[in-house]
Amino acid sequence: MLEFLLDDIFEVERLDPDGKKFDKVSRIEARSTNFDMYMQLDVNTEIYPIHVGEKFTMVLAPTLNLDQTPDSGYYTPGGRKSLADKYEYVMHGKLYKISEKGSASDVKVEIYASFGGLLMMLRGAPSHAAKFELDQRLFLLMRKV
After folding, report:
1. How far is CA 4 from the centre of its chain?
2. Which residues pair with 15 in a beta bridge?
3. Those residues with Cβ within 8 angstroms of residue 57's Cβ, 6 or more apart along the chain or in another chain
4. How many Å apart are CA 3 and CA 17, to the nearest integer?
5. Could you tell me what percent of the chain has a pLDDT over 90?
6. Residue 127 DSSP code
7. Which residue of 8, 28, 66, 90 pairs with 32 in a disulfide if CB–CB is 3.0 to 4.6 A?
8. 3-state secondary structure of 121
9. What are the residues facing 44 on neighbouring strands?
């Protein structure tokens, strides 16, 4: 059984809430169905078009290796099967900030990651952020439902 940092289904609520900044990139706002997580994510819409109302499965994983061995940091072409084979859109990045927001009775954790300049902000209950660590390398994998 594969261990994921996060595995949930999200529904796109808004596209480019602050206006379109780049031709090939859109910022989506989405909410997860299982963990009630809120997410802002930059997506290269030239290669992976996405629209308001669409649902997608998103996984955050520390490695693409099916045997869960750590990622070497190098691309090794070959016939090896990987987690990426099961998804349509894959990004590799680094978690650069974890912060808490809200009052003592309603604390939310915000997780920030950068995927080569495409940013993600994920907000939710602290219990869903227990597996995340600062400077952690991770893979974001998406597939439309």
Report:
1. 11
2. 28
3. 7, 8, 9, 10, 87, 142, 143, 144, 145
4. 33
5. 74
6. G
7. 8
8. strand
9. 25
Burial 53-77 (b: 16+ CB within 10 A, else e): eeebbbbbbbbbbeeeeeeeeeeee
Per residue in 10-61, pLDDT (tens digit) is: 999 999 999 889 999 999 999 999 999 999 999 999 999 999 999 999 999 9
Q: Provide the sign of the torsion angle of the four alpha carbons 72, 77, 80, 82, taken in this order.
A: positive
What is the C-alpha to C-alpha distance for residues 25 and 117, in angstroms, rounded to an integer?
Answer: 11
pTM for this prediction: 0.90
User: Tokens standing for 141?
Assistant: 């994998």
| Of 17, 52, 55, residue with least CA distance to 34 | 55
